[in-house]
């Protein structure tokens, strides 16, 4: 995993040792993973199995979230029936045992699977938060209204399994508007706060890239995505299950590669309608040169062809920013304008709820 900008990791991954970094993230949280991560930190300091399995990761880059990789590895053991003693602690599996009692049990499980848990540290987090499709929808409404084009070719950077590319197969509805497949297995009710001006559009084509694409059509892919969703976030698990059911009917292929190596060829493959490049909470993991390269591709292409962009990313220049910003950009050289850029709102890290500004800038 690339080392993200310092701000992205500074508030939850600070410290000289892994134990210090674990504690910086867990703080005093009283949920399952709060207790587990603090237990991992103590075990690291004591030279227990956590110290043993983290060999080689002692100086992992900030933002590598070694502890979350380990917890996902443990969760995969639980989901595949190889750690039945932990099921009672996992609310998404019906567990109701007190979270404060989890660490001694989890430590024993880790100690019995040290090599497998060490291998799990090589697997970067893959959550594919499908709630972010609500932010994408708000951005597409804005671009369709501004461009007048209702045929969209959607391209996602850092797409994971591509679940957000399927937004037209989900159902979204507010008090006075709706979009998508009304009978979809995935229903979003009031996912957007603030003024919504719905626009009809059709997605004619969709594609994406990722350094580590996940195939949602496989059992291993579904297991991987599930393991990175925190087990007490029940609504996230419900959304993921529903999205995976939709993806089983409407599979989408995600190419392996960096954004900068994939994007230009993808843009030039088909110029029908309005091409929209979409990315969400991914640039925090990109090296600076990758961000610069992608921006250059978009700017140069947009100078020649109509192009849209929807982004949900943190503003690394604003130390006060606590939520990712939802921005749209529209290049329309035929209209004699270079670029229209708007900050239209903010959203939760997991997408919902999207808050639209009363007066987008």
Could you give the topology of this structure?
Elements lengths: L5 H5 L7 H9 L5 H15 L2 H5 L12 H14 L22 H11 L1 H7 L12 H15 L3 E7 L13 E3 L4 E3 L6 E3 L2 E2 L8 E9 L8 H9 L6 H16 L4 E3 L2 H11 L4 E7 L7 H15 L4 E7 L11 E8 L4 E11 L6 E3 L5
Parallel strand pairs: 1-6, 1-8, 2-4, 5-12, 6-7, 8-9
Antiparallel strand pairs: 2-3, 9-10, 10-11, 11-12
Helix pairs in contact: 2-3, 3-6, 5-7, 5-9, 11-12
Quick overview of this protein structure:
The protein is α/β, with parallel strands linked by helices and 361 residues long. Helices cover 37% and strands 18% of the residues.
Task: Characterise this structure.
- The chain is α/β, with parallel strands linked by helices and 361 residues long.
- The protein has helices at 6-10, 18-26, 32-46, 49-53, 66-79, 102-112, 114-120, 133-147, 219-227, 234-249, 259-269, 288-302; strands at residues 151-157, 171-173, 178-180, 187-189, 192-193, 202-210, 254-256, 274-280, 307-313, 325-332, 337-347, 354-356.
- The strands form two sheets. It has a nine-stranded mixed sheet with strand order 5-12-11-10-9-8-1-6-7, with helices on both faces. A three-stranded mixed sheet has the order 3-2-4, with no helix packed on it.
- Helix 5 packs across helix 9.
- The chain is globular.
- Residues 1-10 have low confidence and may be disordered.
């Amino acid at each position: 995993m690339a080392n993200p900008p310092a701000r992205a990791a500074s508030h939850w991954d600070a410290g000289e040792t892994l134990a210090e970094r674990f504690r910086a993230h867990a703080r005093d949280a009283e949920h399952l993973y709060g207790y587990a991560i603090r237990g991992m930190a103590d075990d690291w300091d004591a030279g227990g199995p956590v110290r043993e399995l983290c060999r080689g990761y002692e100086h992992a880059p900030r933002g590598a979230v070694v502890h979350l990789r380990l917890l996902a590895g443990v969760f995969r053991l639980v989901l595949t029936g190889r750690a039945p003693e932990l099921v009672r602690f996992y609310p998404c599996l019906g567990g109701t045992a007190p979270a404060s009692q989890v660490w001694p049990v989890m430590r024993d499980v880790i100690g019995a699977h040290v090599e497998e848990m060490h291998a799990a540290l090589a697997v970067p987090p893959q959550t594919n938060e499908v709630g972010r499709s609500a932010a994408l929808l708000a951005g597409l409404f804005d671009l369709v209204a501004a461009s007048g084009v209702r045929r969209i070719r959607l391209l996602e950077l850092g797409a994971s399994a591509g679940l957000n590319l399927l937004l037209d197969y989900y159902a979204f509805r507010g008090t006075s508007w709706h979009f998508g497949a009304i009978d979809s297995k995935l229903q979003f009710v009031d996912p957007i706060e603030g003024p919504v001006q719905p626009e009809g559009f059709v997605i004619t084509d969709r594609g994406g890239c990722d350094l580590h694409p996940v195939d949602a059509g496989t059992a291993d892919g579904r297991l991987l995505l599930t393991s990175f969703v925190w087990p007490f976030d029940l609504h996230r698990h419900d959304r993921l299950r529903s999205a995976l059911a939709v993806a089983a009917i409407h599979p989408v292929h995600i190419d392996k590669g960096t954004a900068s190596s994939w994007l230009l060829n993808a843009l030039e493959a088909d110029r029908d309608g309005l091409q929209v490049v979409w990315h969400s909470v991914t640039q925090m993991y990109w090296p600076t040169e990758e961000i610069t390269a992608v921006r250059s591709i978009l700017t140069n292409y947009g100078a020649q062809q109509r192009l849209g962009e929807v982004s949900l990313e943190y503003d690394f220049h604003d130390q006060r920013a606590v939520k990712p910003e939802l921005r749209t950009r529209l290049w329309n050289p035929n209209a004699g304008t270079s670029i229209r850029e708007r900050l239209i709102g903010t959203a939760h890290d997991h997408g919902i709820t999207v808050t639209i500004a009363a007066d987008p800038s």
